[in-house]
Write a structure and sequence with these properties.
Elements lengths: L2 H8 L9 E2 L1 E4 L3 E4 L23 E2 L6 E6 L5 E5 L14 H16 L3 E7 L6 E7 L7 E6 L6 H13 L3 E6 L12 E5 L11 E4 L2 E4 L4 E4 L3 E2 H9 L4 E4 L6 E3 L6 E3 L2 E4 L1 H117 L3 H19 L4 E2 L12 E5 L2 E6 L15 E3 L2 H8 L9 E3 L12
Parallel strand pairs: 9-10, 10-11, 22-23, 23-24
Antiparallel strand pairs: 1-6, 2-3, 4-5, 5-6, 7-8, 8-9, 11-12, 12-15, 13-14, 16-19, 17-18, 20-21, 21-22
């Protein structure tokens, strides 16, 4: 039932988020309860309702001021004064929650027990929505919790454990259709009545079961009122029982549907019936196992006779196999000797091949080093005929040509010959290679493919193109004079 509908039926109106509770702290008498005729302290309602001067009442949860109020249907409660703390748990409870607490308190009192609302633990470990106290002993108490908001199994178990630490039983009650934690802790789900305040007309629709021996399983009970359920629990007529693993499929009355429950409220008689049925089932299974054991023994005797017959045949075959195995082992021994001889021959051949390869690699490395030495000597001679002024002159011509062709000045990153560019000097426009200045004719094989070449004059171009290693169209000369006589290889 939606919260605004419940509120209108009960006749309680308050602002968003809720601002009401059923208990308050009196400055002289202490805790008073609006659901009790004498407020629990021998005090008339008129002594706190619209009195002048006003009695200063406070919320037992947050300490904020509260004042006595009557709903249009004459329900007594305490409302928070303006400016309350948003963290007060009593003030943010929904109308459904307040209604269920009233109904639980009424059911407890009908059972002959006293019911106190919103009772906190001395150390603050818990706060019971409704605390039921036995008429014969103040030590015999049971907490009843209205739980409508979502909560995890771990959280509700932790809250239940806090009650258990103080030797207090608890039952959680929800009026929601689906209660996922119903088996986690002692709990029931109820259907609200109309009008909602009539506790004897609220029905328990989940969390209560009985054992049907003929069916061999549990059946859900849905024809018990909340008031009756509370009376049975407080009278020790019901127990929260952990259902046996084989019996957790619960039959729903009036249909073939089932649900699963690992624990539920039930009577000791049903618990005994489950135990009796389980004992009967175990006896039947034991008898079945005995029959199966006798059948296995007979089959074992037959197998043993067959095994003896086969054993004799196996002995004969074993002797034959031993003879063949000895022959096979001798053949294998001779085969392994031959394989070892061939392996030794292959190993010798492999080592000789390895020695030849190492010798070839050494000769190739010596040849490479000799080629590098010759190329370096040729490069030194190639560059010895060019002075610094001549190199600067050539670089200036290349720079002007790059400005014409690419509108970007060609620059060198080093003024020394680079082995990877045939001991020439690479020049770049931005990040891109523009060309190579005066690569050595003896090392043109090292030059990157399609590299452009710049030389001083036609004589140098002729020396480079004569090698046949570069395209003459890729060689540019600037017709610069030699100035000095040089010997070029």
């Amino acid at each position: 039932m939606p919260a605004h509908t419940v509120a209108s039926l009960v006749g309680i109106t308050y602002g968003p988020g809720g601002q009401m509770s059923f208990t308050a702290l009196h400055p002289e008498l202490g805790r008073i309860d609006a659901t009790l005729a004498d407020l629990g302290q021998g005090l008339e309602w008129e002594n706190v309702y619209r009195t002048r001067p006003r009695i200063w009442l406070t919320c037992p949860e947050c300490g904020h001021g509260v004042h006595a109020k009557l709903s249009p249907r004459r329900t007594r409660y305490f409302a928070h004064d303006p400016g309350r703390s948003p963290d007060c748990q009593l003030s943010v409870e929904s109308a459904d929650h307040h209604l269920l607490k009233l109904v639980l308190a009424e059911a407890i009192r009908r059972a002959g027990w006293s019911a106190d609302l919103e009772v906190p633990a001395p150390d603050g470990a818990w706060r019971a929505d409704v605390m039921a106290t036995s008429p014969t002993s103040d030590e015999d108490r049971m907490a009843w919790e209205a739980q409508l908001s979502p909560i995890t199994d771990d959280d509700i178990q932790m809250r239940t454990d806090r009650y258990a630490a103080d030797d207090i039983d608890v039952c959680w009650v929800s009026s929601r259709d689906r209660v996922p934690w119903l088996c986690t802790v002692p709990a029931i789900a109820v259907n609200p009545a109309s009008p909602p305040a009539a506790a004897e007309r609220w029905m328990v629709h989940d969390g209560l079961v009985r054992f049907d021996y003929a069916r061999g399983g549990w059946v859900q009970v849905d024809d018990v009122t909340l008031a009756t359920f509370v009376r049975w629990v407080l009278g020790d007529g019901l127990v929260f029982h952990a259902i046996g693993r084989r019996y957790r499929r619960i039959h729903l009355p009036g249909s073939n549907a089932t649900t699963r429950r690992s624990a539920s409220w039930t009577t000791q008689r049903s618990i005994d019936a489950e135990a009796e049925h389980e004992a009967m089932r175990q006896q039947q299974e034991a008898a079945k196992r005995a029959r199966e054991a006798r059948a296995r023994e007979a089959e074992e005797r037959r197998k043993q006779a067959e095994a003896r017959r086969k054993q004799a045949e196996r002995e004969r075959q074993r002797e034959e196999e031993e003879r063949r195995r000895a022959e096979a082992e001798e053949r294998h021994r001779l085969f392994m000797i031959e394989m070892e001889r061939q392996r030794a021959v292959r190993e010798a051949e492999r080592r000789e091949q390895q020695r030849k390869q190492q010798e070839q690699a050494r000769q190739e490395e010596l040849a490479r080093l000799e080629r590098d030495r010759q190329e370096q000597a040729a490069a030194q001679q190639w560059w010895s005929g060019v002075s610094a002024a001549q190199l600067t002159e050539l670089l200036d011509h290349v720079a002007r040509l790059s400005m014409t062709e690419r509108t970007s000045r060609a620059l060198l990153r080093s003024d020394e010959g680079d082995r990877d560019f045939a001991y020439g000097i690479p020049v770049y426009t931005g990040r891109h290679l523009y060309g190579v200045i005066r690569p050595c004719p003896h090392s043109l094989g090292r030059l990157p493919t399609s590299s452009r070449i710049f030389v001083r004059n036609a004589r140098e171009k002729a020396l480079i193109t004569a090698t046949g290693l570069v395209n003459a169209d890729l060689v540019t000369h600037f017709d610069l004079p030699d100035h000095e006589q040089t010997t070029l290889l």
